[in-house]
Amino acid sequence: MLKSNFHTHTNFIEKYEAEFSPRELINLAAKEKFKVFSITEHGGQRLDLNKFANPLKTYFHIKDYAKYKQINLIPGAELNLEKKDVLLINYKKDLSKLRTFADLEKIKDENVLIMAPHPFYGIPFMQKQSLSKVIKDYKHLFDAIEHSNCYTRYFNINNNKAIKFAKQHKIPLITNSDAHFKIQLIKNYSILNCENNIDSILESVKKGKFKNHTEPLTTTEFVKISGHIINHAINPFILHKLRKQYSTQGHYD
């Protein structure tokens, strides 16, 4: 039984993306007894810098340290394809060539996991990045549907839709943390029923051989995390300035 998480972020590429560095995140993962882990930085064409942000930079930077901490770190990325977010796990080739769902279809048969992250955003102005309007058209591409961390005991519309969709189309529903904050990592993860090697791990997810653990956020936690999401969504001018500033300082490429 392997405690696992396939959706996390750090501040290594984008300084304001998360509250921890890669080493801090791996230390936290080790403390929480994770055995299988992915760091999935955002990847896509950054128009404000006019270059592709390679999310695998974090993986190559920290993979040896993760191995030292006895964590099986699997390369991952949260890609923006046709303005929609998609999780791609165990792909080490040139991610800049993946720009459309047609490109994703070409690698479907490779030894990868394709997941639908937070597919039914509950925040209105984040709908542009949500898969909700296109997920039916591309459901055959997804190995798993994500159960989102961003919910409370009284507000869980996004996950209710994800649960219904996964059940209707017989796609495994997996809990990831989408961790930008420590509390997300602690409350949301999956337990895989498999051996700790890549083939067994991918098969376990694709066949739904895992158990999910998830806990609702408190109102305070929900407001903090939602505020982080809102800040990224409605302050593009500020982020544009920050990215330019930190790009010159080596924090972003």
Give an overview in words.
There is one protein chain. The chain has a seven-stranded mixed sheet. A five-stranded mixed sheet has the order 5-2-1-11-12. The longest helix has 16 residues, at about 220-235. It has one domain (about 1-250): TIM Barrel (Alpha-Beta Barrel), CATH 3.20.20.140. The chain is about 35% helix and about 20% strand. The N and C termini lie far apart (about 35 Å). α1 packs across α2. Residues about 45-50 and about 245-253 have low confidence and may be disordered. It is built from eight helices and twelve strands. The chain is an alpha/beta fold.
Fold blueprint:
Elements: E1 2-5, H1 22-31, E2 36-37, E3 42-46, E4 51-53, H2 56-68, E5 72-73, E6 76-81, E7 84-89, H3 101-106, E8 113-116, E9 144-147, H4 157-169, E10 173-175, H5 182-187, E11 188-192, H6 198-206, E12 210-214, H7 219-234, H8 236-248
Parallel strand pairs: 1-2, 2-5, 3-6, 8-9, 9-10
Antiparallel strand pairs: 1-11, 3-4, 6-7, 7-8, 11-12
Helix pairs in contact: 1-2
